[in-house]
């Protein structure tokens, strides 16, 4: 019922020419047909990567945007701009943006809304820090991030979003949540959305992110409420990404 989604997050890696070369290599991957594959690339590479991947089933997304159509926001990039460049997804509230750029739940909620206003699929990232995890606050933190992050959404629009559970202590650290730990949080997220939006929650895709690699993707994907992955480091190399998204290169 829920089509799995594997999303790469290239973060601030790859110049436009490196990104274009990598996109050419992606075209040679024999992708698992039952999965959607997405690459969220740096702003300057969205256009060229979209052009290279047009006509393939690989989707292109952005890693951020500013929640306004246009205006005097020096240095920012609008939903319209990313969409016109070829992005159909956007990551909202990645923990690096929350921590380094001090993005708040309220600001992230505006981004989720703006993405939907422009028919871009937002991937809302939630997740607890190590300190919060150790203090037993995982579920309360996630509940707060979700309640605020989704506050502008109605029952009709909720189906259009993707959620990524990314425990901050697992991002780029090599440590990952066990499949059971991740499943427990994913189940909690789905239940919470069900309580607020009804049965629509059953079709929302909830991705796991945090040191996903070829060695652990299958065991994570085997869990009932894990519908895919948001992959950072391992999405940067064709060898590891091709093994995560499906099969070996043709
Ligand atoms: C991420 O960037 O969202 C991420 C999960 O990174 P990594 O896979 O490197 O932990």
From TrEMBL:
Highest taxon listed in the record's lineage: Bacteria
UniProt main location, coarse: cytoplasm
Gene Ontology molecular function terms on file: triose-phosphate isomerase activity
UniProt-listed CDD domains: TIM
Catalytic activity: D-glyceraldehyde 3-phosphate = dihydroxyacetone phosphate
GO cellular component: cytosol
Top-level class of the enzyme under EC nomenclature: isomerase
Family from the record: Belongs to the triosephosphate isomerase family.
Function: Involved in the gluconeogenesis. Catalyzes stereospecifically the conversion of dihydroxyacetone phosphate (DHAP) to D-glyceraldehyde-3-phosphate (G3P).
Name used for this protein in its record: Triosephosphate isomerase
